[in-house]
Design a protein that fits this description.
Layout (H helix, E strand, L loop, with lengths): L2 H10 L6 H15 E5 L5 E7 L2 H15 L4 E6 L7 E7 L2 H10 L3 E4 L2 E4 L11 H15 E3 L8 E5 L2 H12 L6 E5 L2 E6 L2 H10 L3 H51 L7 H12 L5 H7 L6 H20 L1
Antiparallel strand pairs: 1-2, 2-4, 3-4, 5-6, 7-8, 8-10, 9-10
Length: 315
Amino acid sequence: MSFSTRVKEELSRHIGSGRHCKIAEIAAIINMCGKIKQDANGDISIKVQTENAAVARKYFTIIKKTFNINVEVLIRRNSYLKKNRVYIMYLTNNIMARKVLKATKLIDINEDQVVIFHRIHPLVVQSVCCKRAYIRGAFLASGSMSDPEKTYHLEFVNLHKKHSQELMELINSFEMDAKIVERKKYFVVYLKEGTQIVDLLNIMEGHIALMELENLRILKEMRNNVNRIVNCETANLNKTVSASVRQIEDIEYIEATIGLSSIPDPLEDMAKLRLIYRDATLKELGTMLDPPVGKSGVNHRLRKISEIAEKLRDN
């Protein structure tokens, strides 16, 4: 089971205590994966389609609890994917459908003229708890998350541009930084920062998923820190080895051309030590001298030896 599916399983079990919160969540589900139809007689019906059993169960439950309505459920096998089931829920009773849509503010009726909307009505998300419920319903209906082991990405996919913009604004009202992008015929509201995705899980009240994501983030951060330390130490070791090889080449060149006895005594002592202890660090070389010399002093002497070797090569 993917992380995204586990999040939806948890959110599907969360039933808001207030009727207004349930209405907000129903509005989100209809907006994201539902269709409102009006036939030639003016009768209205609602169809909600999803491949996620948890979403179907949640929609069926909150419709029943809020309006005391039983929706018809049809299960089909997805012929394209060969295995996934598609859950299609119908509310064909004109009176009940109008009742649901009036409560969710998805229709306006003026002199028997019905206007259907895809919108987030301010009255539906008037309180903070209703905003949370709407975002939760939207994610259940048409949201997804990438595996946090690989990358941080959470998105909501919708057909309607205006509704997607309103959803982005609703999410950003919680001090988020959601953005919107057009992908083929869809509009995608997304978050890409781990901390913001954690905050959004908290807003949707997916606390178990939140803790799991936080644990993954901590482990990921620890692995990254360890890798950085190892890479840094490896780079330092390579640098030390390269410097040692270059120093030995310079010393051997001086010895082969003018001899080590021809350079000042402090430099000769330093050169002989470096030839004997080829893998020693500058600090270790400094302690072997008599009297001992600090790391900067050793570095200074080796640099002088390199300058002598360079002059000899130039000549």
